[in-house]
Amino acid sequence: MKNLLSFLFSAVVILFNSLTAQEIASNDSVMRISLEDAKKFAFDNNYDIINAMKEIDIAREKVKETAAIGLPQVSGSIAYNDFINIPTQLIPGEFFGEEAGTFIPVKFGTKYNMSLSATASQLIFSGEYIIGLQAMRAIVDLSQKQHEKALIELVQNVSQSYYLVLIAERNKLIVDSLLESLTEIRDANVALYENGFAEDIDVDQVNLLISDLNATLMNIQNNLSVSKNMLKFQMGLKLENEIELTDNLDDLLGKVDQEVLVQSGFDYRRNIDYRILQNQQELTNLNLKRYKSLYLPRLYAFVNYAENAQRNEWNFMDMTQQWYTTTIFGVQMDIPIFESGNRSAKINQVKIQLDQLEVTDNKLQAGLNIQYSTVRNNFINAWKVMKNKEQGLELSQKIYDRTRLKVLEGVTSSIELQQIYTQFLNSERDYVMAVLDLLNNKLELERLNN
């Protein structure tokens, strides 16, 4: 038995150390994540999404709370009274043969009184209760739509943060490549200068470009850090966790199906904002029915059972003493008769609110159709601009590479390289911004269509 216990203890220690090591390794490891994985992770860990789920849970509990009003209600009570001074009543003296106009003080009751009672009640009919149940279910539906909207917005936020990280990483890659290229050119110019085949201005010119690039690289590294932190925040990931993005801009561009996005059409009734508005209209209609139901009577029944004891000595625990039972069954109907126009004024207010929501409905329909048309046109234009900038980047890359070779061979000067270098950086910046614009318009199209 001792050997067995020793073995089990050793096994537990080894298992604990193994799990601890795995946890540390997991914490120290880098999370490699694609855009789709980032979205899925955010669906479960984003702070706003978690709260939106909590709102659904709260709404469901409110349904239970409202439903409980129509279920049997049971309450109990215990009352104890110690009459330090028993109440005195004045009885006319004529009852005791005294002269008229005189009163005799008499004390009724006992010093100690105790009562035990239980009451059960049941709502039989209430129009407001029935409408209230319907409204609670509509509120649950509204909270679910709010959760859906939060998910749609989260997809946008995570995607945009992911794009910014990719752009920063691409910029860093380009600048690192340029620094390597310019360092090679500088070394070649130094060699040419030392052998009398180049001027010192050529060396200084390249050194200036390298200095500017180093400053640019520091800004890019800072932007990369900020973008990654924003992505972690959107995902609900702790900032100390390291992430590595597995997608790149070319991967994401390859997944953009222009024809499907352009030809998919648009139905405003599927849009989450419109469906939320419809839910609000439903709740307002139910509110109107609730006020109208207040004109109906309210019916409920109850049963009360009570045990009472009166004593001049404190002996309530003596089971031989008498307790007196009272049992009541009752049905009560509350009938509204006159309310001075209060309910009718509330009904008119809700009717006006419904008219306002109808106007908002028409406005939202028109606005969503215009918004879709605008975003669709922007997407088509962004696609064309991206293709144009892509060709421009390829040409500027080719020109830069040729010029770099000429500088290395001493055929051209560093001044010309500076112009081509600036042109290449501008082309790269324009292309990246065109890609970002295209992806953002794609996101907006998808958001409108849920």
How would you portray this structure in words?
The protein has 450 residues and is of the alpha+beta class. The chain has 10 helices and 8 strands. Helix 3 packs antiparallel against helix 4 (127-194), helix 4 runs antiparallel to helix 10 (414-448) and helix 9 runs antiparallel to helix 10 (414-448). The longest helix has 68 residues, at 127-194. The protein is elongated and about 150 Å long. 16% of the residues are buried.
Roughly what is the average pLDDT, rounded to an integer?
88
Based on helices, strands and strand pairing, what is the structural class? Answer: alpha+beta
CA radius of gyration is 41 Å
Helix content: 55-70%
Kindly state the number of beta strands: 8
**Helical segment tally?**
10
The largest sheet, given as strand count, sense and whether it forms a barrel, is:
4 strands, antiparallel
- Which oligomeric state applies? single chain
- State the end-to-end CA separation: 65 Å
Tell me the series of helices and strands, N- to C-terminal. HEHHEEEEHHEHHHEEHH
Widest beta sheet: strand line-up? 2-5-7-8
- The unreliable regions are 1-27
Strand content: 5-15%
Based on Cα principal axes, name the global outline: elongated
